Amino acid sequence: MERAMQFHETLQNLMEWLDSSEERLDDMGALGADTEAIKQQINELKVFRDVDPRTVDVEALNQLAHDMMERASPESAQAIRAPLDEVNRRWNSYRERS
């Protein structure tokens, strides 16, 4: 039960962080036309590159999910796998964009 609560809490936190971060990336738009605009965008991108702590969270979530799925029924394992796959897909997309 404790592992399931930890999984759901970590999953929810990552989903919220991804929502916010993806929105900020979308709002950045095209590369600026002048030097100052480009410098500003570079500074904004530095924030996105600071994802190492989130990498640890994603890896921990994957390990926790793997451990839970080993002991779960097929239906429960699928209920774990579906949101995990979504987080991993979004995480990989985020890493490629930032």
UniProtKB/TrEMBL annotation:
InterPro entries: Spectrin/alpha-actinin, Spectrin_repeat. Signal peptide: none annotated. This is Microtubule-actin cross-linking factor 1-like isoform X2.
